[in-house]
Automatic annotation (TrEMBL):
GO terms for biological process: acetyl-CoA metabolic process. Residues 6-171 form the Hydroxymethylglutaryl-coenzyme A synthase N-terminal domain. Residues 184-255, 267-398 form the Hydroxymethylglutaryl-coenzyme A synthase C-terminal domain. InterPro entries: HMG_CoA_synt_C_dom, HMG_CoA_synth_N, Thiolase-like. The keyword Transferase applies. Keywords: Transferase. Pfam families: HMG_CoA_synt_C, HMG_CoA_synt_N. Gene3D superfamilies: 3.40.47.10. The lineage of its organism: Bacteria, Pseudomonadati, Pseudomonadota, Gammaproteobacteria, Chromatiales. The keyword Thylakoid does not apply. PANTHER family: 3-HYDROXY-3-METHYLGLUTARYL COENZYME A SYNTHASE, HYDROXYMETHYLGLUTARYL-COA SYNTHASE. Belongs to the thiolase-like superfamily. HMG-CoA synthase family. This is Hydroxymethylglutaryl-CoA synthase. GO terms for molecular function: hydroxymethylglutaryl-CoA synthase activity.
Length: 410
């Protein structure tokens, strides 16, 4: 990639389901101390998708919001990539449904990327290469991360569920974040830390092993990106990580600081532990409030943290450097550096999803469990009525008839 070309994120938007569960409510229903979820995981709420809300509907809603809020003409989009690990078909990509429902031009490269939670980062870097190569011919790319994290009722993973989509417009004149091509580092290793067989609606995971794989991948990708640099964190204004649950960001930041200090950090070493916590509170914690409200959204988790940072401090941090780390189980990862654009502060309100989050409906545990059971049969349902789930005014999945999925605006 030519370093003289400025490529990065030009627009961002989040869209998610209309309902949520309070983690404290779930904890009490499962006979667990609420602090285990709210403090132990760092989560407050998790978004819950109804049978009529799927990866297609959320991808389209997020894409439409990004285009409209940042005044991007759909005709400018020459590549559409949807990163997801919860697709709706083994062959037909979510991206083709989204291409049609967003009204994009037929002269548009369109595909889906799958590598667990890494799919959207793969789409971002691929679209950057497409632009820098000259193939874009002045056009932009639309990259959408859309997922529903589902682990089943009463399972250990239940409190780390969530649902949502983040859409990114990528261009050679990015108004939000420029990605520095020579600081993009990658890592891949075949591991069985998290996977979902074709016959299962729910993922399987080796939780402790997956955390270790995440941290190993962080080390490998960072080394590929910046080498054995020992002053990186001091040069950054924010560190963003893949966030399957909020407290994972602390574990990740600890690993980065240990790489710089050259030794492990524990609470027994008061000075190092204080240095770690102060660094985390400055560089990471402020940008995790949306993740704590939405829950795990797989491919979009990292980019939801980016939205959080830009909506709060886009103007204040203009021109400053940040780091981004994406991890997908299985496993693949990327660590890269970016510079917040000088114009980012103008778009803080445009990308802020808090008004929409405030309109969500709080579910009782009985309502939540009913939605989960209904969703498990949704792919085979011939007819679904959004009104039955309290939905109106959006794009919804309305059933599969003659083996074809149908979407309608209600």
């Amino acid at each position: 990639m030519n370093d003289s070309i400025s490529v990065g994120i030009d627009a961002l938007a989040f869209a998610g389901p209309a309902a949520f569960v309070e983690l404290a409510d779930l904890a009490r229903a499962r006979g667990v101390d609420p602090a285990k979820f709210t403090h132990g995981l760092g989560q407050n709420r998790m978004a819950i998708a109804s049978p009529c809300e799927d990866t297609v509907t959320m991808a389209v809603e997020a894409g439409a919001l990004a285009l409209k809020a940042f005044d991007v003409d759909p005709a400018e989009i020459g590549t559409l990539i949807v990163g997801t690990e919860t697709g709706v078909d083994h062959s037909k990509p979510v991206a083709v449904y989204a291409h049609d429902l967003l009204g994009l031009d037929e002269r548009c490269r369109t595909f889906e990327t799958k590598h667990a939670c890494y799919g959207a980062m793969a789409g971002l870097t691929s679209s950057m290469d497409w632009i820098a190569s000259g193939r874009a011919r002045g056009r932009k790319a639309l990259v959408i991360a859309s997922d529903i994290a589902s682990y089943g009722l009463g399972t250990p993973g239940e409190p780390t569920q969530g649902a949502g989509a983040v859409a990114m417009v990528v261009s050679d004149q990015p108004r939000l974040l420029q990605i520095q091509p020579r600081t993009i580092g990658d890592y891949t290793r075949q591991v069985m830390d998290f996977w979902r067989p074709l016959y299962s609606k729910h993922a399987l995971a080796d939780g402790h092993y997956s955390i270790q794989c995440y941290l190993d991948a962080l080390k490998g990708a960072r080394l590929d990106a910046v080498g054995e640099r020992h002053d990186l964190l001091d040069s950054l204004s924010a560190c963003l990580y893949h966030v399957p649950f909020v407290k994972m960001a602390f574990k990740a930041h600890q690993r980065e600081m240990e790489m710089e200090l050259g030794h492990t950090i524990s609470k027994a070493e008061a000075a190092s532990w204080q240095q770690l916590t102060e660094s985390y509170e400055r560089l990471c914690a402020p940008w995790l409030t949306l993740n704590a409200e939405v829950g795990n959204i797989y491919t979009g988790s990292l980019f939801l943290a980016l939205i959080d940072l830009l909506r709060q401090a886009g103007g204040e941090l203009a021109g400053k450097d940040i780091s981004l780390f994406s991890y997908g189980s299985g496993c693949g990862a990327t660590h890269c550096l970016g510079k917040i654009s000088d114009t980012a502060g103008r778009w803080q309100s445009a990308l802020d999803p808090t008004p929409a989050l405030a309109r969500r409906r709080r579910l009782t545990i009985a309502e939540y469990e009913s939605l989960v059971r209904a969703s498990e049969a949704a792919d085979r349902a011939e007819t679904l009525n959004p009104a039955d789930f309290g939905l109106s005014g959006g794009l919804y999945y309305t059933g599969t008839r003659n083996d074809r999925r149908h979407y309608e605006r209600g």
